[in-house]
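Interim report, section 4.2 (structural modelling).
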Amino acid sequence: MASAARQNSRRLLTNRVMTTLTAACAFLAVVVLLLILSYIAYRGITAINWQFLTDTPKPVGEGGGIGNAIVGSFLLISLASVIGLPIGIAAGVYLAEFGAGWFGHIVRFVTDTLTGVPSIIVGVFVYAIIVLPQKHFSTLAGAVALALIMIPIAARTTEEMIRLVPLSLREGALALGAPQWKVTLGVVIPAAASGIATGAMLAVARVSGETAPLLFTAFGSRFFNWYLDKPTASMPVQIYNYAISPYDEWHAQAWAATLVLMTLILIINIIVRFFTRKKF
Amino acid sequence: MADSQTSLPSPASSFGARFRAWGRRRVLSSTGNTGDTIFRAVLFFCALLLLLIVMAMVVSMATNSKLSLDKFGFGFLTSRTWNPIQDEFGALPFIYGTVMSSVIALVIAVPLSLGVAIFLVEQSPRRLARPIAFLVELLAAIPSVVYGLWGIFVLAPFLREHVEPWLQRSFGWLPIFQGTVTGIDLFTAGIILAIMVTPIISSVVRDVLAAVPTSQREAALALGATKWETTRIVLANAASGIAGAIILGLGRAIGETMAVTMVIGNRPEISTSLFKPSYTIASVIANEFTEATGNLYLNSLIELGLILFLVTFIVNGVAKLLVWSVTRKTSGTARAA
Amino acid sequence: MPSPSQTALVKRCLLFLLGLTLFLAGCSGQQGGVGAGGQVRLQGAGASFPNPLYQKWLSEYGKLNANVLIDYQSIGSGGGIKQIKEQTIDFGASDAPMKDEDLKSAPGEILHIPTVLGAVVITYNLQGVSQPLKFSPDVIADIFLGKIKKWDDERIKKDNSGVSLPSAEITVVHRTDSSGTTAVFTDYLSKVSPEWKDKIGAGVSPNWPTGVGGKGNEGVTGQVKATPNTIGYVELAYAVQNKLPVALIKNKSGNFVEPSLDAVTAAAAESIAATPEDLRVSITDASGANAYPISSYTYILAYKDQKDAAKGKALVDFLWWGIHDGEKYTKDLQYAPLPDEIVKRAENKINSITNGGKPLRGQ
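Predicted structure of the assembly:
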């Protein structure tokens, strides 16, 4: 009896310790984020005004803004998502539903490897297959480079999330006479929707901050651009260019642009979560 | 539920076994429904596309690194020299830097992310969980350039003034904590990577844990388990998902370019100390690619990229093995409990 | 799933945002990249060193010629050379002139048009030392070789009598990324130190024997600023903007010269005799009483034969404006203007640019 009591109190102690530890982890993560955020705000808040958000870049000393970079990033991320997310999610669904054979294993292994490719290599690859043959830089090339980075992230998370959908759900739908594809499309994917959305959001957040793949594909521009076959400015490239310059004014603009970028991602995140939240 | 086949199977292995059986049925038979065939064909095409893209990348990189492959052969992997002016190139310092920085990042990030995810799913009150989850996900939205800048201006000085000297005083007898402290070194790079990787792992693990059926938790609690013991069972259930999350995080750590190159010191040297500068494959490619004129130089850089693929293969494999061995142990314990 | 009315509300908000973006794009001050009739677009890329100046030029030129839209991306000298050879851009820019092999392997003849001059300066962080330090060339080389290790070394003291130098170890800060600035600096070191030339050589990414690295000019600037007893090399603009001390360097004629813009132009002027016809020249270690020894040209690279008449005309007009009117913007941004003789030679080069055999200027 005594040893059972000791065991119990040890279990309770472990429980208490682990609960505190996990809370501490969450606390630490939030603190780090707030530290970084506050530093960004401290360095950049002075440069944010309406002109900054709508104007194009100007030479040093004349102000200027990131209007064209915002539009460029928006175009690049939307196009990259349209190209990359469906392919990634579809590949993930394939791996989860039909991926038990040797082909599935190969694809899974290859996807894992693709997540580790440095973004600059993706940029160089797209440069070689799209920019060189066309002899010009373009928004399309930039979007393809970003899509290539998004695909493995979306595929991997989708596969994991679909695997976690309870079998009872599938079996129930099948028992009601639904064909395979309706079960997957109509029952399994919606059930895993919030998880798939996490993957999609991670992919979007990741590519929105990537500079290297755009340096040789979308290139950059001083002007507003709406055409897919022309180069375009983008936020991460603009931030990079300003940050490595000698001028304090441009440094402040770099930090301010970061704030704007993070706000935009936060908004997209909220919108996506709104549409995929579970009602139950 | 019909899963009471064997005597007390662990939740993980029984679920996995049934899922695998389900998967095998799918692969072998066709249902005769045209909708199914089309659906499967489309999905297959997307998976194939993924495979083809990677193969195209590997082929393109192999063709573009022919010169250095021919000239250096296997010696490239073991040589420590990187001298562009005299056309001598070797990959070892970069392989070391890449592996070490990723390992440090994961050693810090995995427990941290798991802690965050467990807290959010199992312990925190509903109203607190959503804002905290958003905040942690926001870490993933910070551009890598900004991480680099924050690293230079805030983290490196902080580590140089406070953390690294303390580590040297307390554990200086360990070779990893020796050497002059500058703040721009492998240690700082590892920490920055850990911060960048945490939101990825924690977001995915959070979703994975949330997807484990509540019946598992209820069953454990009904048997008298403490909250933590219940959580362990949930973790065992979610093992494969957690492994996937870690692989994603690892991918980010290995391939991260901008942030690392600003704080790692960019010195192609191998040293046992964490406080010495180092160099990763992604950083050297980013630093030197635009200015690399001269074909052997370019080819060597691209060969480094090819080696990175190889390094990712190997590190992924090792990570999977580790996770598999850990889950085997945990499912064993669950059976005993 | 959200209710139909909630979905409709969110949809309306998204449409509003989309409309807002389009509206904002339309009402920007700059002429948008919407290719209306009569507009010519030029794409340039290359050296990061002249980037602030070129951005100023493009903006000012754009005010005078609203239908010519010129873009310049700073991707590094090597990038400029690569892209002009691949013909993905209309003009390139490079600090170091192209090598013979690069010129031979290009699909057409490429002209080097010098635009401005710049200086690489030696900067340092020494507490308690307020006067600018003086360095002889061999002293600099030996510091960067790691042979002179302390600040109070006899050879440094010799050039700086009257300055109390601390007995601290010198920490060298160099570049970790490939760069034109490094190429110019190592070119100078190779000229003044046979040992440097033998052991290390000149190039964009040398095997530094000692020191810590910073990424980019801003990285080196930051390191020097933050770490005491450091010495490093950066472009003049970075030292000036960050209020770092710059050293005086003994030039070939034996005078200690500070990196003023006039001294840089003097270095170019003194080297005119040695400047070949294609204008590819290194002007480091120039002779001349007032020449600053670590100076360099930066060039725009353009094909002699332009394929597109409209683009070619726009390019030559812009280049002409640059070497004449553009020079008045140089000093404010810490770039040195070209000496007159070089402007004349550059004019000849621009006049020789043709389209289908006919020169484009004077049309």
